[in-house]
């Protein structure tokens, strides 16, 4: 028992030393502006905490509080460079997180999951048969758990991006048809995009959200081309880039938008049908292994079972 307590304390000390070394090695000098901003955020956090204690803690407020704590943790431990932050910000935008502190929240969440798995490795490490008594093995296990915990949120983010892009791809032809109806009715592109966003809110919230942001950028900024390019960069799909290129060229050269949108809608529906036909063609190949493992043995038992039973009875006589 004393052996396990001593090893656990040693592993915890190693984890704390590792985290402290990362903080000291990557910590940047804090200027007076940053100190003022931190104090302002701390005062705002205290005010928000007092308001929550008076009004009662609700699930949404709890979620915001956790995000705030993760953001503070990510801002205090800047362990990635500027290029990695830009790339992570692009991935977060494609996943639907456009908050200005989304990168800090993601970094804090990665540190939290890494530390949680490292603590789990510390608790489980001494109980591993034969290898748990070696400090080097426990240290490697803790380091691997820490790194794995920091990588897992990236896979979750990639899964969310892929799922969101699939939803947008499936609903894009319907959005193009609605946009064609709006342009035929005499509405401008800004009004049409906003109307399509309102109509799609119950069917495809991700695409409706992106169209709503694009319509707001068109109305506020006035630069339609830049707003459309931002839409393509936020979604990151080839079909959306084709739509944006078509709309920009139509505005630059004065060509009718309706005909181009009809061609794009037909192209997207044809691409979806081809994808479905490809999946259907692959279904027979994918069903071969399950049939060999589960269906074929059952059919063999049903077909040959009575004959085998008769042979067994015959040889026993």
How would you portray this structure in words?
- The protein is an all-alpha fold and 317 residues long.
- The protein has a domain at 166-271.
- Helices cover 85% and strands 0% of the residues.
- It contains 12 helices and no strands.
- α1 packs antiparallel against α5 (102-124) and α5 (102-124) packs antiparallel against α6.
- It is flat and about 90 Å long.
Shape: flat
> What ranges have pLDDT less than 50 throughout 5 or more consecutive residues?
1-5, 23-35, 52-57
Number of continuous helical runs: 12
Helix content: over 70%
User: What distance lies between the first and last C-alpha atoms, to the nearest angstrom?
Assistant: 65 Å
Structural class: mainly alpha
Mean pLDDT: 79
Rg, rounded, reads 29 Å
Order of helices and strands: HHHHHHHHHHHH
Strand content: under 5%
DSSP strand tally: 0
The major β-sheet equals: none
Descriptive tags:
317 residues, 0% strand, flat, mainly alpha, disordered N terminus
Itemize the secondary structure elements and their pairings.
Blueprint lengths: L1 H25 L5 H24 L3 H18 L5 H13 L7 H23 L10 H50 L4 H11 L5 H17 L2 H12 L2 H16 L3 H30 L1 H29 L1
Helix pairs in contact: 1-5, 1-6, 3-5, 5-6, 6-7, 6-11, 7-8, 8-9, 9-10, 10-11
């Amino acid at each position: 028992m004393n052996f396990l307590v001593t090893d656990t304390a040693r592993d915890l000390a190693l984890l704390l030393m590792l985290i402290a070394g990362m903080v000291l090695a990557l910590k940047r000098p804090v200027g007076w502006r940053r100190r003022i901003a931190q104090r302002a955020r701390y005062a705002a956090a205290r005010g928000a905490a007092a308001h929550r204690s008076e009004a009662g803690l609700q699930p949404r407020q709890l979620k915001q509080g956790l995000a705030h704590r993760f953001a503070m943790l990510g801002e205090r431990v800047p362990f990635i460079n500027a290029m990695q932050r830009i790339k992570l910000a692009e991935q977060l935008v494609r996943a639907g997180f456009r908050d200005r502190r989304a990168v800090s929240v993601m970094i804090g969440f990665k540190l939290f999951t890494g530390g949680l798995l490292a603590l789990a490795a510390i608790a489980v490490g001494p109980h591993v048969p034969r290898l748990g008594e070696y400090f080097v093995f426990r240290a490697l296990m803790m380091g691997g758990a820490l790194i794995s915990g920091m990588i897992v949120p990236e896979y979750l983010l990639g899964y969310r991006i892929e799922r969101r892009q699939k939803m947008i791809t499936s609903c894009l032809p319907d959005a193009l048809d609605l946009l064609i109806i709006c342009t035929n009715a005499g509405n401008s592109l800004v009004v049409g995009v906003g109307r399509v966003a309102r109509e799609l809110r119950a069917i495809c919230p991700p695409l409706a959200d992106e169209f709503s942001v694009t319509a707001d950028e068109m109305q506020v900024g006035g630069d339609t081309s830049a707003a459309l390019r931002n839409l393509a960069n936020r979604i990151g799909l080839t079909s959306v880039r084709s739509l944006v290129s078509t709309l920009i060229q139509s505005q630059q050269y004065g060509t009718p938008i309706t005909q181009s949108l009809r061609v794009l809608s037909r192209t997207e529906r044809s691409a979806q049908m081809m994808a479905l036909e490809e999946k259907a063609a692959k279904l027979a190949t994918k069903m071969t292994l399950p049939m060999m493992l589960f269906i074929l043995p059952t059919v063999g038992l049903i077909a040959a079972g009575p004959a085998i039973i008769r042979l067994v009875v015959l040889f026993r006589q």
